[in-house]
Design brief:
The structure is a single chain. By secondary structure, the protein is mostly helical. The protein has 2 domains: 135 residues, Tetracycline Repressor, domain 2, CATH 1.10.357; 128 residues. Helix content is 80%, strand content 0%. It contains 13 helices and no strands. Helix 11 runs antiparallel to helix 12 and helix 12 packs antiparallel against helix 13. It is globular.
């Protein structure tokens, strides 16, 4: 009798742990972390450059609210695409396609996170920060998600909400969306996303095509257009990084440090355009994953030191 009770308790605990793990997976932790880091970069820049000091309590509130909205948006995207995710090797094991979480549970969970996160940001940071986050969610779910099945240039549409987190972080501090600095940070993330997503799309082009997603590699059989667009955006990033220095928002440390980081990214972009293979696309993808954190790191050091 006691043994059965213990076994039932362990079974329940394991089941609960697995369920919570699936809900956590729904929030796409990797992407959500990228969103948080970008938001915090905007928050830090606005705090130091505009306000002259960091409000740590406000930073914690901005982090909590952004995490809730970003996680909810990622989860709702999976709810909307659960049928298509089941057709792709890279996504078919997710909680919704496998029905480890039901469609109703996924929808309830995602919508709840978005609403709670939005209310939290508005109440504890600034209504403008909440408005930026709401715009991010609406563009991502209302435009980018359906456009993935309609046009190959959905990547450009998706880059807009993907680049808004630093704007939201800046707005949490200042309550405005008209400071030039926040839009330079927006541009960094916007142009970074193009080669990043294009590299992923090239690696997974068969998966995307089979599920009906019209990513840019679709129709670009030799990958020339894909690689050219990726390379152009990498080159543009040099100018965007320089604009931070030109506007007086960053100093020589950032300007000098950003050049080798950019050249590192450019090297893999050139390799991809020269040999448009699965191998070079994967290399570009990993280079892009390294690029943004490195840029944020040297920018943070530059801002805090000076």
């Amino acid at each position: 009798m006691c043994l059965n009770i213990i076994e039932n308790k362990l079974s329940f605990q394991n089941s609960l742990r697995a369920k919570l793990s699936d809900y956590y997976i729904l929030t796409k932790p990797g992407i959500t972390l990228t969103v948080l880091i970008s938001m915090l970069m905007g928050f830090l820049m606005a705090s130091v450059v505009v306000k002259g000091s960091i409000d740590w309590a406000l930073m914690i509130h901005a982090t909590i609210g952004t995490y809730l909205i970003a996680g909810g948006t990622a989860a709702h995207n999976q709810f909307l695409e659960r049928g298509l995710d089941g057709l792709m090797n890279r996504t078919k094991a997710r909680p919704l396609p496998t029905q480890r979480i039901s469609a109703f549970e996924g929808k309830l969970f995602s919508v709840s996170l978005i609403i709670i996160g939005l209310a939290y940001l508005v109440w504890f940071t600034h209504p403008v920060a909440g408005a930026v986050s709401l715009a991010t969610t609406l563009i991502y779910l209302g435009l980018y998600t359906p456009m993935k099945q309609k046009t190959a240039f959905n990547i450009v549409i998706g880059a807009v909400p993907g680049a808004l987190p630093p704007v939201g972080g800046w707005a949490a501090v200042t309550g405005t969306v008209i400071d030039p600095g926040m839009w330079v940070l927006f541009a960094i993330v916007f142009f970074w996303q193009i080669p990043h997503v294009m590299a992923i799309a090239w690696v997974c082009k068969d998966d995307y095509s089979g599920a009906g997603f019209k990513m840019l590699p679709k129709g670009d059989h030799n990958g020339l257009k894909t690689s050219i667009y990726a390379l152009l955006c990498i080159l543009i990033l040099f100018g965007v990084n320089y604009s931070l220095y030109a506007l007086g928002l960053a100093h020589g440390l950032f300007l000098i440090s950003s050049i080798p980081i950019g050249l590192f990214f450019l090297f893999f972009g050139l390799r991809f355009i020269q040999s448009r293979s699965h191998k070079t696309a994967r290399a570009l993808m990993f280079a892009s994953i390294a690029y943004l954190p490195l840029i944020w790191l040297v920018l943070s050091i530059d801002v805090l030191i000076y």
